[in-house]
Amino acid sequence: MKHIKIALIPGDGIGPEVIAEGVKVLKAIEKMDSDISFSFTTFPYGCEYYLENGRMMDEDGIEKLKEFDAIYLGAVGYPGVPDHISLRDLLLRIRKEFDQYVNLRPISLLNPSLTPLKSRTEEDIDMLVIRENSEGEYAGAGDWLFPGKPEEVVLQTGVFSRKGTERIIRYAYEEARKSNRSLTSISKGNALNYSMVFWDSVFEEVGKEYPDVKTFSYLVDAASLYFVSNPERFEVVVTSNLFGDIVTDIGAAITGGLGFATGANINPEKAFPSMFEPVHGSAPDIAGKGIANPIAVIWSVSQMLDFFGESNWGKAVLTTIKDLLREKDYHTKEIGGSASTRQVGNRFVEKLIKSMSP
């Protein structure tokens, strides 16, 4: 039996509400499949923990999390705690400490009724964005000089190492080759004359080893336009930490909103745990109301199962999401329905069980 140890960090706002539905799905799979089991340990890390303890996690939090196969995160962020603290001291720290250098963000239209774009189908919007997840513009390098004085200067330094840049680009080429899809690099070499010129050169250099992969390269401003006007241009996309963060939110917008935004933070070598999360944030304005859309957190279950070699279950979860979205009685408020978070989760489990029954 394959046993997967999962560290749960429900986090802030709607995080606990949606994570509960994702756990419900995993437990249902465990009951249906005698070859796989899950164990869950919950950690109270997040903004409430910060307000009580002055830190986002235990001092030995990283050591505790290191014992798990995966981390399942609900959301981070809440009023009263500065965003740069909540993000950097928990989410970014985990990504860096566990060398989760690959961020996988699927941008797929699950139902044509969800997109604000005219006459677009599932075939038009179906891409995988591979975002560098450990350095770049989010490396935290820089300085703040002469604070409060007329000559005050702030420096924010993007860090692009040969190792970090080459490994993410190579990962993207491998994915494009494996899936027989084109690969697009998004950069800004005309303006960022060091970091992005370097990125472009590495993309071209590594590409010589993959002559079978069709490639494109767009400036980030043009790519942002094409995400909206011509999303069918994109199949596999590779880009830097900052640009990936931005274009994937555009991707969420064209596929139905942040309730459909999921992400996997991957350490491909499995030397450390990988982390799976919805990317919609903590949404404090609706926290506690039971109306949050749990689709993204359930989609991240699909990503988790794929990562652990359970691709049949990963596919079954994604197929069931698509089937569920055809039932308007189980749409949550932000997509025009009235179903609760729990109702969507329960109905999902019902449909998954039925679809996998002999």
From TrEMBL:
GO molecular function list: D-malate dehydrogenase (decarboxylating) (NAD+) activity; magnesium ion binding; NAD binding
Enzyme category, top tier: oxidoreductase
Keywords assigned: Manganese, Metal-binding, NAD, Oxidoreductase
Enzymatic reactions: (R)-malate + NAD(+) = pyruvate + CO2 + NADH
Domain Isopropylmalate dehydrogenase-like, residue spans: 5-348
Signal peptide: none
Cofactor (UniProt): Mn(2+); Mg(2+)
InterPro entries, sorted: ICDH/IPMDH, IsoCit/isopropylmalate_DH_CS, IsoPropMal-DH-like_dom, TTC_DH
NCBIfam families for the chain: TTC
The protein's name: D-malate dehydrogenase (decarboxylating)
